[in-house]
């Protein structure tokens, strides 16, 4: 793993045809005055392997899954479920949290459209009003969270309380 400053990391992104805008994440963090560290590492989309590359515990990883919730009236809503890297998203709990009748992982084309990034690189931040963020209570016990920055080869570490103070989110028990 290599620690770089954000200018160097952003310059690398500009040369790529990235789906999700790494710059948008950095701009958001800077605008909100969030102290953060940028980590560049070999591409990895699996939480445990990414945590090893980044040099932190799996509990600190913010694993993010896009969940589709079906409601009684047939309407669908979408949740960015954020859980600790050592936990799994409990789909039944997500459905219950949103008063839905059932939940499943969103189809990859919908998840990519809502997050503007490849699966495995979804950050715990939503820039789309159709995608609400629900953070699992289990993630709150760690001082710092580390997450993919919209790319499989770049991650960001931030203080958990600071993260919770700057994003629009709800907190629920959505893991198993």
UniProtKB/TrEMBL annotation:
Name of protein: Ala-tRNA(Pro) deacylase
Lineage: Bacteria, Pseudomonadati, Pseudomonadota, Betaproteobacteria, Burkholderiales
InterPro entries: YbaK/aa-tRNA-synt-asso_dom_sf, YbaK/aa-tRNA-synth-assoc-dom
Organism: Paraburkholderia megapolitana
Residues covered by the YbaK/aminoacyl-tRNA synthetase-associated domain: 47-163
Signal peptide per UniProt: none
Single GO MF descriptor: aminoacyl-tRNA deacylase activity
């Amino acid at each position: 793993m290599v620690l770089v400053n954000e200018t160097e990391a952003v310059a690398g992104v500009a040369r790529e045809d990235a789906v999700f805008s790494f710059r948008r994440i950095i701009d958001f963090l800077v605008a909100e005055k969030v102290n953060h560290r940028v980590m560049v590492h070999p591409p990895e989309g699996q939480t445990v392997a990414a945590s090893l590359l980044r040099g932190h515990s799996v509990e600190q990883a913010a694993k993010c899954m896009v969940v589709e919730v079906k409601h009684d009236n047939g309407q669908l809503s979408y949740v960015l479920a954020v859980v600790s890297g050592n936990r799994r998203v409990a789909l039944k709990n997500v459905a219950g949290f949103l008063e839905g009748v059932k939940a499943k992982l969103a189809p990859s084309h919908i998840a990519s459209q809502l997050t503007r990034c490849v699966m495995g690189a979804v950050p715990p931040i939503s820039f789309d009003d159709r995608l609400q963020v629900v953070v699992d209570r289990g993630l709150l016990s760690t001082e710092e969270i580390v997450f993919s920055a919209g790319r499989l080869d770049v991650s960001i570490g931030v203080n958990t309380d600071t993260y919770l103070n700057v994003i629009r989110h709800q907190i629920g028990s959505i893991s198993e």
